[in-house]
Amino acid sequence: MKLAATLVVLDTCVLMPPRLSDVLMDLRGEELFSLHWTTAIEVEYLRNMQTAFGFPQEAVRGRLRAMRGRCPEWEVHVSPAARAKVPAKVDPEDGHVAAAALTLRHYVDEERDPAAYQVFLVTDNVRHFARGEMGKLGVEVMKAGAFLDRVYGEHPEETGRAVQRAVSDLSRAPYTEGELLAALEAHGARKLVEGLTTRLGVTTVRRAGGRPRVRKP
User: Fold this and answer.
1) How far apart are CA 58 and CA 165, in angstroms?
2) CB 3.0-4.6 Å disulfide test: which of 53, 62, 152, 194 passes with 217?
3) Residue 192 falls inside a structural domain
4) 203 domain-assigned
5) Rounded distance, CA 74 to CA 59, Å?
6) Which range marks the domain in which residue 98 is found?
7) pLDDT over 70 (residue 69)
């Protein structure tokens, strides 16, 4: 994986969990892949972060500004051609997310060497996205934990640095490395957690209650 050749669309459900998205943003900082979403995904994010996690609107907007700053390539302008290619089996409510990934696939197919590029759609609602049909169109649909495990398998050193940075960047109620790894394990990143507990010399610790904290923009 590398920044210019690995294009990743994040669904709303992956952007929302703070510790998961922290690590994804810090992996982007390691230049392993580019991260993308749309303004429609942002609308869902802003609404659901307030209703699901109870964050104040300004805190959510601040976090979104921070993510945009980490990923200047973030915005996908969905093309009509990509919308037309969305498989019929994709849940209609998620068609715009599938179309974003297909827009990136169309871009690399038309403008660059298709074989040199990977396009991923990372979502925890994989059953909504017709994984087989999307795969035939050049987009690999994966759960967040499986994607993190793949990144770790290819880049263990960079992944370790990203996790450590995610811990150090938290401004309030800081997490330990073990607590952050436990949060990633809850998202299904079992291979990553198994590897990093050994590399970092820590054990996973389930964090006590309290709502997730937002890091500074």
Assistant:
1) 24
2) 62
3) no
4) no
5) 20
6) 6-167
7) yes
